[in-house]
Amino acid sequence: MGLLADLLGDYTLRNVAIGAAILGAVSGALGCFALLRRQSLLGDTLSHAALPGICLGFLIAGSRSLGPILVGALISGALAGLAVIFLIRMTRLKTDAALGIALSLFFAGGIVLLTLIQRQAGAAQAGLESFLFGQAAAILPRDLWVMGAIAAVALGAVALCWKEFKLASFDPVFAQTLGLPVAVLEAALTVLVALAVVIGLQMVGVVLMAAMVIAPAAAARQWVGRLGHMVLLAALFGILAGVGGAGISALQPGLATGPLIVLIAAGLVAVSILFAPGRGVLWEMAARARERADLQGRQILATFRDLARDHGDPAYPVERGMLDTYHGAKTSRELDKLAAEGLIAPASHMPMEGEHWVLTEKGLRETEDLAMPKSFPSHV
Q: Which of 16, 26, 277, 358 is the most exposed place for a label (fewest CB within 10 A)?
């Protein structure tokens, strides 16, 4: 409790945790739309494209003031996003090619500007490169107000245009037939994602920000099937990753907060992919195993039926060893399961001839409509 109280009372940790929570909520919510529009690399493109805006904001302000830098990053990222939309709509380039072109062009320009700034005399530019990988500990209360205002604008726009954004993301063709300005809606969503990127630049940096846009949304997609639930869960996952990364970095001084946040977000994706009901890998593996077991049980039941028909005896006793030979595998587990369901029952037979089973009345009814392509040889 003493350690927890010390952490909660820590000024830096409190600022970082609040900033990370804001980042996680906004990036998780807006990342859902990028994921559903199959533009998972949009966050990567916009985050890298923000670098020249960061440099221009610094040059205009003459200092490392967060406000001008974030405005420059927003303008630069939004321009890159709009360039992607233009290339997709006006040329034959696919989405991935357009994203790659915008990312490379804007990031290269940012690196050139960053190199020129670092060559200038004076120390004002010191630490500007921290926007590449983030510097969460440098967040101040006034920075939180800026991040909170940007988050409120982004989330407010989503709430205001919820139905339009939803329709444009799932079925843009139908949205266009309804008279909705799909191109404008796509541009608006792109600018909103750029806002989410801007919020995270100081926290996780240009390089890692893409993960915060996609990872919470990808994790949430595994658990739910409705967009509203997905957005809320993605925001929750983003908050969990952000606050968790901030807490771990406080417990282990020297560990960078941004990478820890991304690692936790990636861990949430891994857990979701493995264990999410209905879509998780382990869930699907278990479902396939149940289907295989059920299919083998149906095949064994069909063998009972065919033997009974071939011998003209509904109560014809079938030896387990013969079933093993015919099906090429041990059938004891399936026989026990069929017996537990009341479809077959043990049958008394001559000694030393092995275990025998016979269809029950329920089993006979079950096999009436059972269609299996194979028929058991009548001479066996």
A: 277
